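Field reference: sequence -> structure
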Amino acid sequence: MNNLHHLVITVDGLMEYHFPIFASILMVSPKLQTLSLKYSGKPYRPRYEMLLDLIASQFYKRHEGNQNLIGDHLSAIVVELKGKFYQTGLISWDIWISGWLTLIDVSLNAYLESNVFTIAERWCIMDQLVTNQHVNDAQGYDIFANLADDIIYKILSLLGANDQAKFALLSKRCRQLLLSSPYMKFECYCLPDDPSCLCEEFTNFVDRILSQRNGLAIVSFRLQWICFNGNCDAKRYFVDKWTNIAVSCGVQELDLAVGLRHEEELFKMPNCIFSSRFLRVLKLHLTYNILLEPIGVLASLEDLSLCSMALRADCLEEWISTACPSLKRLTISHLVKGIRNVRITSESLEELDIFNLPTDVYNIDISTERLRKLSLNLNSLRNPFNCILKVKAPNLQDLKWTGAVNDIYLSEWKFLKKASLCLDINKTYHEEKTICIRLAKLLQSIHHVRVLQINSDTFEMLFLGDLLRIALNNLHHLVITVDGLMEYHFPVFASVLMVSPKLQTLSLKYSGKPYRPHYEMLLGLMASQFYKRHEGNQNLLGDHLSAIVVELKGKFYQTGFVIANLVKIAKGLKKITIFYSRKHLLIVLKMWSDIWKVASPRLEVNLVEKKI
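Structure field:
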């Protein structure tokens, strides 16, 4: 297969005999670059398994001692694990020691990423590595001999302290690689009343490793030390000591997640931080701690993350406006208390993420000229309706906002490309008139947007207030999340589409919630008035809308009616796609029949079954 570059093999469970099978394929694929193994999840064992083992043993005899069967063209392996793994580790490590890979970290990322695999699975992989190393040591072969240090450093950056210690036992070179790795990550978690508290062993191990750095450069230093036993107060000085070592080694990314006691404690950043010329990223996760004001300037810092901590009144503003003059990205999350007025002013900030603020915040003021991306999640606020939200960001391009309808004061975003709004109207128990005015102000600020995702409640409220008149002249793609389509949704959506002259694609996604708004009767009345106003006008939208996508889930109600009427008035419609699950097939077929009654002969209708 001389032209094969990428190969994906679906397997039911890897056994030892799969190695010679795959090797035979790769030997006749001289240009192959990527091999992907995807598990079907079925615990299948073929009836000819014994015969496969026999043929495999003959393969091993034929190629005994040949460690490089296929040259050096294969550069990446991707493994997607599911179901029974059997001898997956053995197969993959055999592939490694055969000298096939020049980019082993792609495979190991699939193995060792903590958000994909459990601790037990990662231990199994390390056990396989240790076993293979001991076996090959006995045979006089070192599986690390042909691997560059940078690749091994990447592997080590994915391991925790226990796995690193295990790795260091393999050989002298492994120990030296651990001591010299530029990616340092140490983790220790002790649960409340846990008799097997590992903090003593943890501090000894980390201190021993860092004390032998001898000034070797550190790119990334990550310390996660959480102890719920309250016995580690006296060891707190280790955090400052290790941070000093990391800074002295020119650390570029510093990630501190520290929680060593139940009571609140003042946390002061070590003085050395403010003298660093190399620090680019600083992440602080200070459980049970109150972050104090900065005592200097972090001139080179570009990325700051403040998580799970308490802040004093003006501390946040000092960190952002004064201490970080070059800051480009800021993340604020899970602030516990101490701050009610969130004020963010920066001349350099480009990305801002805010979520899970203290429940009693009453004012959020954001003023950043260079801000390109803003993400707000204000669901944690106890009284969001009375919280004032001011955003002055004239160059904003990407907006994501989740929460309720705040008292908003927003600048006009002329360069906005993408917006995702999920506003829970029904949690706001206030008069509809005030909500409509605020939503109209929001729509006015985002009316330059090109791609918009929004929940239908927002448009319903604007429709009730007769405020769906703001032109969305640049809108090309619209995604509306609905709880269940009713007849009144047709005039609501039609009103939106009438003020969107460039809209090309309309997508309707079901949330699956059987929600019926308390103002449903009023919506029905407004809908009847809409029909009277536009009676006989079959082409309300022009011919710009070319595609409709519907994803069905939960209660459908009058979905067929709404979609059929949209098809009827959109004369330029070329394609409609409906995603559905098997249990809704009869409903979908009825909907398909309704659409064909009003559709033009050129309309392409696609029914796609999928898991939703």
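Note: Residues 182-339 form one domain.
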